[in-house]
Amino acid sequence: MKYLEDMFGLNIGELNSYLFSFTKNLAIALVIFFAGFWIAKMISRSIKKVMLRGNADPGLTSFIASLANITLKILVFITAITQVGVEMTSFVALLGAAGLAVGMAFSGTLSNLAGGIMVLVFKPFKVGDFISAQGEQGVVKEIHIFNTYLNTPDNKVIIMPNGPLANGNITNFTKADKRRVDFVFGIAYGDDLKKAKEVLAQFIQDDTRIMKDPEPFIGLGALADSSVNITVRAWTSVEDYWPVFFEMNERVYNEFGQHGLNIPFPQMDVHVHQNN
């Protein structure tokens, strides 16, 4: 020990004291770090449970819980490094110097944060809505600070950044309480158009899920190459949209023939001329 003191000018007593103090502070910092992250997670979950019990908007609940979790973890991290001995003035100066570079690097992340706030403030959709955006479709499951989670009809999970989502076109299929179901049914040329319209009107009348107001519409839509196309428009609740759509198509296929109506398919007549 005396040799080290003479060679390097070290005071072994002071060195031991410093190492002991540093080790103790490091241990305390690690405890603060891990315990603080665990507490932050618990607080975030508690906030979410309390808000859900109070019937708060699920999207806002996820956002607030996620924001609280991140904010608390940042505070825990700052507290931990302060315990080790890092001066906050130096730390703040370092953050200020790196702020521009970090801001440039995370410009997309900040855009997503702003997009998440816009989604929660203006509410173009909420948890449980079926939407189409950014070329994807699905049911909104969660709205977080930076991303929104969708479940597709085949149960895939799509994670969409909030920035492009908030700034792009959004089609919300379930925001309104009713939707119009559009059909195009073709009959063969020569079939009784009036009869076809009466049959379709009866099908609509039989389906109690189709609303009487607004009144359903049945009209001649187009004279196509191989068929006379009849346009049908009917209104139903959002929940009944697809059942009405599929079952009406199935009924037309099964019962049109019973009324002397033919569902055509593309045909081509070929005439052969022989030159003598």
Can you give a write-up of this model?
There is one protein chain. This protein has 276 residues and is of the alpha+beta class. 53% of the residues lie in helices and 19% in strands. It folds into three domains: 2-105, Helix Hairpins, CATH 1.10.287.1260; 122-172, SH3 type barrels; 178-259, Alpha-Beta Plaits. The protein has a five-stranded antiparallel β-sheet. It has a three-stranded antiparallel β-sheet with strand order 6-8-7, with helices on one face. The chain is elongated.
Ends apart, CA distance between termini: 125 Å
Assign the CATH class of the largest domain. Answer: Mainly Alpha
Summed up, the helix count is 8
Mean pLDDT: 83
User: Strands of the largest sheet, in order across it?
Assistant: 4-3-2-1-5
**CATH architecture group name of the largest domain:** Orthogonal Bundle
Total domain units:
3
Query: How much of the sequence is in beta strands?
Result: 15-25%
Uncertain stretches of 5 or more adjacent residues:
none
Radius of gyration: 34 Å
Q: Tell me the structural class.
A: alpha+beta
CATH topology tier name of the largest domain: Helix Hairpins
Shape: elongated
Instruction: Give the ordered list of helices and strands.
Output: HHHHHEEEEHEEHEEH
Largest sheet: 5 strands, antiparallel
Number of strands: 8
